[in-house]
Structure formats: structure tokens, C-alpha cells
Amino acid sequence: AQVPMLEEKIVTLSGRSVDAEVSAARFVDEEGPAILVMLRDISERKRLQEQLRKTERIAELGTVASGMAHEIGTPMNVILGRAEYLMDRVTEEPIKKGLQTIITQVERITRVMNQLLSFARRKTPERGALDLKQVVEDSLEMFHERLTRSQIQLELLLADPCPMVLADADQMSQVMINLVMNAVHAMPNGGTLHVALAPELQMVRLTVADTGYGIPREVIKKIFDPFFTTKEFGKGTGLGLTVVKGIIEEHQGSIAVESQEGAGTTFTILLPMADNKT
């Protein structure tokens, strides 16, 4: 008789967690009744199922985001315009403070909507031979005053020369800005931002590390999930790292994160080198 199949998580001798399909059948041989237990590794099947679910959710999100951008964006622009108009004409401090609150919150809503659209309707990357070193330097230049004001020291270790990568310049800039912004938010009392670039086999490795408060172990697996954020309310949309991961994977690259509470966080990105003929 066949026993119904079960799906379980098992741990191998090497310590790796595996999704397994467990089935069993009773039989009788010359030694008497026995049970045959079979285990099948279904980790890849589970991974593909989860990837399909995520793809379907993103497609649905894109449809919703497009409608929301129009329905919410138009009245938000009107509210923002009126609030800014009044700000220039009132002198009473309590009223100005109230209007500033309106402006701040409308700008936040607009920022969330823009990131939502960026996440759900990301354009196909226009990849070509790209000097990633130049992108890194240009992106960091934008944060020069912010880093100084926040008492954050910058450590740069950029291979020179560094091989070109096959990438979209705008999207790589978006990746850098998101990672640096996260690092700055993680170091409210100052610290060190370490950025490194170096060749690694047929890839180029980009490292962005901070000495901030770190990410708890139970949280680190969720940081690339849409709308997941460890920042206080109003400080983050929970989409920045989701967008970063999506961009890197579309470039046939990879992104990994290591973190220790109280010691900081390190993001490591690998991107394919550009063919010399590109």
C-alpha cells in the first residue's frame, strides 16, 4: 500500500537545507513486512515555483501601479502646487509649519509612486561596454556634501585600470545611489563607507560596505523582498533593494549581502565583463 507523499525540509550532513518529497510504500519480502521510504530533492522545483509566483505578482503590481500613478499623481501635483503657492504668501509660523508638513508628505507619496513604477515597469537595460569606475566616482560625487555633513569617511579602493562591464549606465547609477543611500541611513552617527572595485575571473566585483548598525540575522533574508524595510515609518519605501536586485539579475550578475549587528553591512555585486569587441 502506498502512503501519501509529503513535502519536508531536511538538513544534509553538510548542513545544507533541502526541500524533499517523501514517499513510502509497504511491501512484504522473504523477511516479512517492510517499508520502502524514498526521498526526492525538489529544491529546484520549489525555487522555480516561487520565481513564477514572484513574476506573476510583479506583473499584477505593474498594472496596479500604472493606474495608481495617474489617479494619485494628478491630485498630488495639485495639492503640492497649492501648498507651495501658499507657503510663499503666509507669514504665520504655525501655518507655514503645517504647509511644510503637507509638502513633505506629498513628496513622500510621489517618491513611493516613482519607486513603485521603477520596480514594476523597469525598462529593458541598454547594455554596452561601461566604465563602472566612472559610474562609481560620479555617484559618490553626488553624496560628497552629505557624507561630510554626516561625518562619514569614504574609503575608495578602485582597480585602475578596471575592466569594462556589460551594463546599462543609468541602471548602474541607480544601483550605486540606492546602496550608498542605504549605507548613509545606516550610519546616523557617522562611520566609514568602503567602496571597492576589482576584476574577479570573468566578472567585475563591486563592494559597498558600511560600519553602521547592521541587519539582524532573522531579517537579512527578507531585505530584497518588495516593501520590506527596517527604516522607521516615512524613511523608506521598501523597494530600493528590490529594484537593485532586479537590475543586477537582469544584467546576468549577482548580489550578496553580509551583515553583523553593530558592525555594519557589506553588499557584494558581480557583473560580467564586456567583451573586448563590444
What's the gist of this structure?
The protein has 278 residues and is of the alpha+beta class.
- Work out the helicity level: 40-55%
Query: How would you state the average pLDDT, rounded?
Result: 83
CATH superfamily of the largest domain: Histidine kinase-like ATPase, C-terminal domain
Low-confidence stretches: none
| Main sheet overview | 5 strands, mixed
- The CATH architecture assignment of the largest domain turns out to be 2-Layer Sandwich
What does this structure look like?
- By secondary structure, the chain is an alpha+beta fold.
- The chain folds into 3 domains: 2-41; 45-120, Helix Hairpins; 128-272, Histidine kinase-like ATPase, C-terminal domain (Heat Shock Protein 90, 2-Layer Sandwich).
- 44% of the residues lie in helices and 29% in strands.
- The chain is built from 7 helices and 10 strands.
- The chain has helices spanning 43-87, 93-120, 132-142, 144-149, 169-185, 217-220, 240-250, and strands at 2-11, 17-29, 32-41, 128-130, 152-158, 165-167, 191-200, 203-210, 254-260, 264-272.
- It has a 5-stranded mixed beta sheet. Strands 1-2-3 form a 3-stranded antiparallel beta sheet, with helices on one face. Strands 4-6 form a two-stranded antiparallel ribbon.
- Helix 5 runs antiparallel to helix 7 (240-250).
- The longest helix has 45 residues, at 43-87.
- The mean pLDDT is 83.
